[in-house]
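Can anyone check this?
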Amino acid sequence: MDTGTHFAMGIGLFGLAHLDPAVASHPVTAQAVLLGTVLGSQAPDFDGLFRIKGGAAYIRQHRGASHSFPMVFVWTFLIASILSLTHEGAALSSLWMWTFLAVAVHVLSDCFNSYGTQALRPLSRRWIAWDVLNIIDPFILTAHLAGFLLWWRTQVHPGVLFAGIYGLIILYTAWRWRIHRSLVRMVQKQAKQAKRISVLPTIRPSRWKLVVEEEGRVRFGEIRRRRIRWTDEIADTDRNHPAALASLKDPDIASFLHFSDYGYVQVQPFGNGYKVRWADVRYYHKKRFPFVAVAYLDNDLEVISSYIGWSSEQRLEKKIQRSCTIETL
């Protein structure tokens, strides 16, 4: 989920924590638990610091080891240990329990969107992305904001209030899961030649994106009210091109493919060499691929320059050209 939703969940879990008598009756414990749930709800995303080392390092690390199940315990230990030192007298069992829950909810909720996590590391490096919730889900965010308003303006018990809210969110997520599975089965009946079908959530709950990968092509569409509307199609014929295969040695391309196994590759002649663009088909929007990795190769198939990240095509070309002298190609 996005940072704002995780922050809202951190506050919401503090509200839920009022079901714990130690939190409800002890101000020091309550203050420590508030910080524990807020920090715990953000902690796995501290891997954003890898941006300092560049886009490739960040993409390789983001939602990887920091979101693994051993790190749930490590984040809990670090946060709760520090807070136990700064909040003397706080009930340690409550502090540890609610901090752990905040970290665990962060990792679990990230598994429900299309970006996914490597939550099973070190047992498996497989990305877990259930494609059920959009990164920003209006229902979940609105439910939290409504809860905060009721908490502020009424005398309702915050623990009971957020127990009800999280019960609704669980039911909502189960409903979305059921719809997703139903739509996948529907598409399977209509796209019998598909090698892979991806039904992806959008910010509009009633609308889903559709990506169908077939032999030699990728088709894009959207689903509304269980009706498929095909919107575009691209050829997928460059995977075995020598330049595409040579680009796999580049660190930026390797980082891209480490994160995504939805890579689609295009090879274009460029000067005295080739431009190889890998794109993630999940994020195809308005005939553009916002998440790409691009490598420029010379005629000997040696990589001259490369780039990875989220960018428009125009911004991408400017970044590439700043680091790559066209005359050398």
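Reply from J.R.: I decoded it. Residues 191-235 form one domain.
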